[in-house]
């Protein structure tokens, strides 16, 4: 991730200088929670940040190696809101190995909590289904059954009916 680059701050300053001279748009595909940086919002022309949360529950994120708590996610959202960001693309996966209905329930609860806490913020949930990739720890895992994924998605859509949440699930 570019935000993990050791010279990220220097790169941001350079881009900011270029923006003063030339007309162009800066976008980041996804931000790294560990490297929340005050320079990022200054570079963005749109007030949208993309955050890759991946799994809906803390326990499942931990099992998959993404050590990211709900508190860290909220701290990151708070940081960007204070910098003028009003829209968040939140990327999630369904069908991650070891995912249970309890994980889906935790995802729904956390999403509801965000919607209530941040009423003036728009959350776009981009949800994809997990697909095993070669050369990863999960390359030999089976893809989740489509009927189970659809069941999970129907539950998510039926429970996340907030004006500030939009769900995109291209399945």
Structural commentary:
This protein is α/β, with parallel strands linked by helices. About 40% of the residues lie in helices and about 15% in strands. The chain has six helices and four strands, in the order H-H-E-H-H-E-H-E-H-E. It has helices spanning about 10-20, 40-45, 60-65, 70-80, 100-115, 145-160, and strands at about 50-55, 85-95, 120-130, 165-170. It has a four-stranded parallel sheet. Strand 2 (about 85-95), helix 5 and strand 3 form a beta-alpha-beta unit.
Q: Give the overall pLDDT as a whole number.
A: 84
Distance between the termini: 26 Å
**Count of DSSP strands:** 4
> What order do the SSEs take from the amino end to the carboxyl end, as H and E?
HHEHHEHEHE
Name the overall outline: globular
Q: pLDDT under 50 segments (min length 5)?
A: none
Strand content: 15-25%
Q: How would a crystallographer describe the biggest sheet?
A: 4 strands, parallel
Helix content: 40-55%
Helical segment tally? Answer: 6
Side-by-side strand order of the widest sheet: 1-2-3-4
Tell me the radius of gyration.
Answer: 17 Å
Q: Which structural class should the secondary elements be placed in? A: alpha/beta
């Amino acid at each position: 991730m570019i935000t993990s680059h050791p010279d990220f701050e220097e790169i941001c300053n350079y881009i900011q200088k270029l923006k003063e001279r030339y007309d162009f748009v800066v976008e980041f595909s996804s931000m790294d929670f560990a490297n929340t940086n005050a320079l990022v919002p200054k570079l963005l022309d749109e007030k949208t940040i993309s955050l890759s949360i991946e799994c809906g529950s803390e326990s499942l994120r931990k099992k998959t190696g993404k050590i990211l708590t709900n508190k860290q996610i909220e701290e990151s959202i708070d940081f960007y809101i204070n910098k003028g960001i009003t829209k968040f693309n939140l990327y999630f996966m369904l069908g991650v190995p070891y995912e249970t209905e309890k994980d889906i329930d935790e995802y729904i609860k956390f999403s509801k909590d965000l919607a209530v806490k941040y009423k003036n913020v728009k959350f776009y949930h981009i949800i994809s289904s997990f697909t095993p990739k070669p050369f990863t720890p999960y390359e030999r895992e089976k893809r989740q059954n489509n009927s189970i994924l659809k069941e999970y998605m129907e539950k998510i859509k039926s429970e996340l009916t907030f004006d500030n949440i939009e769900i995109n699930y291209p399945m």
